[in-house]
Amino acid sequence: MMPTLQDGNMLVVNKVSYQVGDLNRFDVVVFHANKKEDYVKRIIGLPGDHIEYKHDKLYVNGQFVDEPYLETYKKEIDGRQLTGDFKLEELTKEKSVPPGYIFVVGDNRLGSWDSRHFGFVKADTVVGKVDLRYWPIQEVQTNFSKG
Question: Which residues form the signal peptide (predicted)?
């Protein structure tokens, strides 16, 4: 999830009030990737969504959707494309995110292992939403949807 989150960041994950029905686009969530590991990724696609990236821009159901949280990272890569072009059906053979699933992507698009590689994530494997980064103290943050 770099640059948004770094190895060693300490996080508060809302496990209590965050239910499957509360999943929102751009939430940063923790989910069970397998029996031994949890992953932290950003929700890009919700059930019923068609996802496409063209020329480093996100389109959901054919409409451009801004991703302000990536602006700092885009500046760091000096004009290179951050997110490779794809359509959901090219990666998953599905035209839209199925009911009960989400599509997640890491902010470090060039090096993230995410739904582009392993497919959809079952919504009921979501542990919770990252509500707060409290360490390191100089990087305290509560809103991960904005830049």
Answer: none
For the segment 8-18, what is each residue's pLDDT rounded down to a tens digit?
655 566 666 66
Strand partners, 75: none
Strands 101-105 and 57-60: unpaired
Domain that holds residue 19: 10-138
Alpha-carbon distance 1 to 133, whole Å?
13
Question: What DSSP character marks residue 95?
Answer: S
| Cα→Cα distances 112→12, 28, 69, 101, Å | 22, 14, 16, 19
Read off φ and ψ for residue 69, nearest 5 degrees.
-65, -15
68 part of a folded domain: yes
Residue 146 lies in a domain: no
Q: Tell me: the pLDDT tens digits for 21-74?
A: 688 899 888 888 888 988 889 999 999 999 999 999 999 999 999 998 788 777
C-alpha dihedral (40, 13, 138, 74), degrees to nearest 10: 30
In the chain, the largest separation of any two C-alpha atoms, in whole Å, equals: 43
Q: Is residue 35 part of a domain?
A: yes
Residue 4 lies in a domain: no
The pair of three-digit structure tokens given for residue 36, joined into one six-digit string: 């031994």
Looking up residue 65, the CATH number of its domain turns out to be 2.10.109.10
